[in-house]
Amino acid sequence: MESSRQKRRKITLLFLLGVGLPSLVLGYLAFRGIRNELALLEQRRLGQHRAVAQVISDTIADEITATELAVARALAGHGTAPSDNVELALTELKRQQPLVDEVFYFDRFGTVQLPAADLLYYPDGSQTSRPDRSWPAAVAPQWRTAQQQEFQQRRYLEAQASYRRAFASVSDPVLRGEALVAVARVQRKAGQLEAALTSCESLVNDYSDVRTTAGLPVGPVAHLERGSLLLATGDTTAALDAFLALYEGLTKAEWTLDRAQFHFFASQAGDSIASTVSRSPAGAALDSYRDSLARLEERQTEREERTERLLRFQETAAEDLPTWLLVDSAGAGPRGRRFTLEVAGQTYLVSLLDAAGGGRGVWGLLLDAGALSDFLRRALEDHLDPATSDWLVKGRDGRPLLGREASPAGPITLNATFADNFPPWLIEFYQRPQSAYRRLFASSQSIYFYMFLLIASILVFGLVLTVRAVRHELELARLKSDFVSTVSHEFKSPLTSIRHLAEMLQAGSVPSEERRSRYYDVLVEQSARLSSLVTNILDLARIEEGRKEFQIEKTDVGDVVRDLVTTTQQRVGHEGCVVEAHIEEPLPKARADRTAIAQAISNLVENAIQYSGETKQVNVSVSTSDGWVDISVADSGVGIPGNEIDKVFDRFYRGGHPLTRSVKGSGLGLTLVNEIVQAHRGTVTVESEPGRGSTFTIKLPAEAEQDDATDPDS
């Protein structure tokens, strides 16, 4: 046992020195190579992202500069202060330059003007000043009389005639519009709905842009009154069209209104459309009005947001602009001053154009953050490979502004800002995780991975081979030890008996002839046992080494079984054993070596006798089935447990039953049987149940009916 342990340690040590240690060293080097390659890859990616960040920053700066120059050119030649010509030039400029959100003028009085702003409305109170108009002295008494007739005396027909005379007496559009509004009003009060509709249509067509002496806008009032009159006359479709026309005109800023006026007329128009549609019978036409209402409400929301943002800038930016005007502008050139203003939670990207100031005021530019974001997105997508890199742009508050994904995958490689922190955004560059295919087959570090994998495979393979070799060596040592022990024991018992009986016979210590005859029989029996043991060992060795030659011929297996059973019965009959043969007739011949098959059957019969226990009954039967000759040896002995059936044909295997352990044997009999049967291209099987005996069955190929001349094995 000590030598086996030493051998195992020696093999393990050789494996560790010859395979394990070099594999570990190579694996460590491969791992270091992978880490170095990854570090180089990250360094290259960082350099690439830095270069892209610089290109993006320069591109954005150049685009802003180009926009500033375009604004400066548009202002050149139109004076240094807002005018109608400047407004037209700036309006055309905004169509051509997507980065221009609005152009403003900051005058020397500290007022911010938006000359070309397309506002939806203006601050409250800014549009309530009355036009500089008054009724002529010849018409004023008549106008006062008409008002008394309408509001005090409620004589609507007389009031209508007075208003008409006033309307005909003046030519000023403001006064004529105010008079026509009064006419339409008293016509409705008098129940003259059709006449009132005619008056409202005249107001819409001829006086829509007029504001009365009280500051009331005529156009929205006429549209709203016209829709109300159409509803009163029962013309629902025309009324809805009138309200939609009013709402659409409001969202297109057709009239100059302040915030309160706009919201009043917008709510009146929207509520009128919604209530009219809800009260009308369902139909396809009503669905179109609902869709139109939803579209106008969406447009109103968008334009209101822009209007509020510009009004907020106009109202509050004047406090911060002087601070930037005091900054030294030496070397600024046409690029101007760029900065960010935070006003009431809104961020404004501002550029002051120094060259256009002229000492009286300064022009400035509000950049469109949305258009700038779109330009930045296109630039990033043009310069970054989406398969390897990702990006995210964040605002000053750290919230994402734009990116391919809200939360890009992979580690951050670089945080980059723009020149002079304008716009005040942060670009985060990410290294996208590579796909499994790219990592394993398309990347440069894959060679290191394959090397590491190969080394690991060699290490595992060598370890498995070493373990198997050690186990094989230990198994061989155990088998050799078992073989020597078993064979020595098997040889010792008959040799001891032969020596003892021979010494007694030699010394003449056996006086009786009958006893001497019995001793001679024992000597022959023990010699035959030794001869059988030696024959089994030699035959098994020859078969495994391929040196055993079988004399294959047509064999009558029934005759072999009869002779074997007769001989065995004569030998063991005096011990109370019964060995019987049951042979099916007619029985085809089998191609077999008669001696070898007899030896195999004999081993099965001997085992059956030895393990039969008290009931020594052995049945040997021969039959045929489906081209096979079946030879079965059955006993009624101790049987074989189910977990041992697969092991009974292993060499030197002895079952765990006490009777099995007490029976003398080498453990090679069933192994020899299996080898002989397999050499004859047959099979041997066993069926057993503990306590009820076992049945071993040998199946040999039956001889086909053909002449010897055509027999391939003849």
Number of E-type strands: 16
Distance between the termini: 51 Å
Proportion of residues in β-strands: 5-15%
Helix content: 55-70%
- Supply Rg: 58 Å
How are strands sequenced across the largest beta sheet? 2-1-5-4-3
Summarize the structure.
By secondary structure, this protein is α+β, with helices and mostly antiparallel strands. The chain is 56% helix and 14% strand.
Overview of the molecule:
This protein is an alpha+beta fold and 714 residues long. Helices cover 56% and strands 14% of the residues. It is built from 19 helices and 16 strands. The protein has a five-stranded antiparallel sheet with strand order 2-1-5-4-3. The chain has a five-stranded mixed sheet with strand order 11-13-14-16-15. A hairpin with a 2-residue loop joins strand 13 and strand 14.
List the helices and strands and how they pair.
Elements: H1 2-75, H2 84-96, E1 100-107, E2 112-113, H3 140-151, H4 156-169, H5 173-189, H6 193-206, H7 218-233, H8 236-251, H9 259-279, H10 284-316, H11 321-325, E3 337-343, E4 346-353, E5 361-367, H12 369-383, E6 389-394, E7 400-403, E8 412-417, E9 426-431, H13 436-442, H14 446-507, H15 513-545, E10 553-555, H16 557-572, E11 578-583, E12 590-592, H17 594-610, E13 617-625, E14 628-635, H18 658-662, H19 669-679, E15 683-689, E16 693-701
Parallel strand pairs: 11-13
Antiparallel strand pairs: 1-2, 1-5, 3-4, 4-5, 6-7, 6-9, 8-9, 10-12, 13-14, 14-16, 15-16
Helix pairs in contact: 1-2, 1-12, 1-14, 3-4, 4-5, 5-6, 6-7, 7-8, 8-9, 8-10, 9-10, 14-15, 15-19, 16-17, 17-19
